[in-house]
Amino acid sequence: MYKHLLVPTDGTELSSKAVDSAVALAKTLDAQITFLYIQPDFPLPIAGEGTMLAPESREDFARGTEEQARKILNEASEVAKRSGVEANAKTAISDVPYEVIIESAQQEHCDLVFMASHGRKGLAGLLIGSETHKVLTHCKIPVLVYR
């Protein structure tokens, strides 16, 4: 059936539960996992008349997000290791996560995307948008949504 799962994770409680479930599924299927963490790009806040307001330097921001990515991906990899599931991890920098998820699934030759959804509805769902919904809409391979 499925032999290679792409599991995007952001370190939230729901995402961590999805990691646990993805690992359990991969173990049952004798599949491997690629964990993916998408780091946000450096924000460029602007205040009146084009004045830049950056609370930290680009280097500090990158260092912080890299550290966060490493921590989250190490935790996910440990879950897989404890269960005897082969896993690797990758990170990317983007402000358009759904595109990176789809591209990563293709690049890694995954046959299933396993991702969490917060299930926002109504105005919150409309305003915030759903990366999961965008992946479901645009991805050419199966997507399993964990809630």
TrEMBL record:
Domain of life: Bacteria
Gene3D superfamilies with a match to the protein in the record: HUPs (3.40.50.620)
Record organism: Uliginosibacterium paludis
Family to which this protein belongs: Belongs to the universal stress protein A family.
Protein's recorded name: Universal stress protein
The keyword Cytoplasm is assigned to this record: yes
Domain UspA: 1-147
InterPro entries in the cross-refs: Rossmann-like_a/b/a_fold, Universal_stress_UspA, UspA
Alphabetical list of PANTHER family matching this protein: STRESS RESPONSE PROTEIN NHAX, UNIVERSAL STRESS PROTEIN UP12
Cellular compartments annotated: Cytoplasm
Pfam families found in the cross-reference section: Usp
Keywords linked to the UniProt accession: Cytoplasm
